[in-house]
Amino acid sequence: MSPHVPHVLILGGTSEARELAAALAAHPGVRVTTSLAGRVTRPGALAGEVRVGGFGGAAGLADWLRDERVDALVDATHPFAETITANAARAAAEAGVTAVVLRRPGWRPGPEDRWHPVASLAEAADLLPRFGPRVFLTTGRLGLSAFAHLTDHRFVVRSVEPPEPPVPPHTEVLLARGPFTVADETELLRGNLIDVLVTKDSGGAATAAKLTAARRLGLPVVVVGRPPLPDGVTAVPDVAGVLERLGLGPAGP
Length: 253
Ligand code: NAP
Hints:
The chain has about 250 residues and is α/β, with parallel strands linked by helices. The protein has 2 domains: about 5-105 and about 230-245, Rossmann fold, CATH 3.40.50.720; about 115-225, Rossmann fold, CATH 3.40.50. Helix content is about 25%, strand content about 25%. Strands 3-2-1-4-5-12 form a 6-stranded parallel sheet, with helices on both faces. A 6-stranded parallel sheet has the order 6-11-10-7-8-9. Strand 10 (about 195-200), helix 6 (about 210-215) and strand 11 (about 220-225) form a beta-alpha-beta unit. The longest helix has 14 residues, at about 80-95. The radius of gyration is 20 Å and the shape is elongated. About 30% of the residues are buried. NADP nicotinamide-adenine-dinucleotide phosphate binds next to strand 2, helix 2 and helix 3.
């Protein structure tokens, strides 16, 4: 029988997951598989093996971990992907597999920022009548129903894939994927006469330019806070932290 090669399953859908797959694939003697939900039509190349689609809840994921002889599960999903993160914690415990959560740090406001923290998209919608009517909404393609009743507002919605209805009646959609530059974001805010930006606290560099642009233009930003991690779960902030938890150093000379 051939010796067992340590198998790491990454729950992906983020740039950190992609970086981690590359780092692990460079390790001789590690098998790495990235799992994608299948929401994005052209997800781009990934190092190692890739599987696509849901597992069928925590129980299905636990079965997959056992069937594929997974040794470590790294949840590198988006900070707002709450269901899969809860399922990952339960499945890893059930299958007796080492679990690591990789979460990029959240954004922090500076002294010149005019941020309004809220706990949900519904709270963000409640706050909008305080500001002018033109809104740049970058909270993703799901959950826009929270804003659908705001008939007096004009929304510019930016997302990677088309938003799911219902959306507010006055909505213009821009399909785009980061990274974005401060110059382009400033132009977008100015050109569309935006009064307020709404964002999730996704963190990371790829989509942070809008915050710099808003600061420079003195615009308010409504920031939707992250859902909490499951009880007892702590996260590492970067790929190096995952490698350390897995007892692996950086690969290469
Ligand atoms: P979610 O609400 O937490 O998960 C819903 C269901 O989708 C899960 O129960 C699971 O189905 C399936 N799923 C999610 N991530 C998966 C993965 N990596 N591999 C296999 N199945 C997965 O997730 P979401 O917020 O819809 O996000 C879906 C994916 O998009 C995630 O991979 C996330 O990293 C990425 N993403 C999310 C956001 C965001 O704002 N939420 C932004 C950028 C990227 P089963 O129960 O059937 O296993």
